[in-house]
């Protein structure tokens, strides 16, 4: 089952991205390096509830 998740920047704490993940294959939280338009650089983004 695929669910929609929000990605939050670890530096500015804003929710910049939304993505889909498969709960069956990925049971933990996603951590990706994404571009933050507010910081104007690539930062670590973590999945929020």
From TrEMBL:
GO CC annotations on file: cytoplasm; ribonucleoprotein complex; ribosome
InterPro entries in alphabetical order: Ribosomal_bL33, Ribosomal_bL33_CS, Ribosomal_bL33_sf, Ribosomal_zn-bd
Superkingdom per UniProt: Bacteria
SUPFAM superfamilies: Zn-binding ribosomal proteins
One Pfam assignment: Ribosomal_L33
PROSITE patterns in the cross-refs: RIBOSOMAL_L33 (PS00582)
Keywords: Ribonucleoprotein, Ribosomal protein
GO molecular function: structural constituent of ribosome
PANTHER family in UniProt: 50S RIBOSOMAL PROTEIN L33, CHLOROPLASTIC (PTHR43168), LARGE RIBOSOMAL SUBUNIT PROTEIN BL33C (PTHR43168:SF2)
Family: Belongs to the bacterial ribosomal protein bL33 family.
Name under which the protein is recorded: Large ribosomal subunit protein bL33
Organism: Desulfovibrio gilichinskyi
């Amino acid at each position: 089952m695929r669910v929609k998740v929000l990605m939050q920047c670890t530096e500015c704490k804003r929710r910049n991205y939304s993505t889909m993940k498969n709960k069956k294959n990925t049971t933990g939280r996603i951590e990706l390096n994404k571009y933050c338009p507010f910081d104007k650089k690539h930062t670590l983004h973590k999945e929020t509830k």
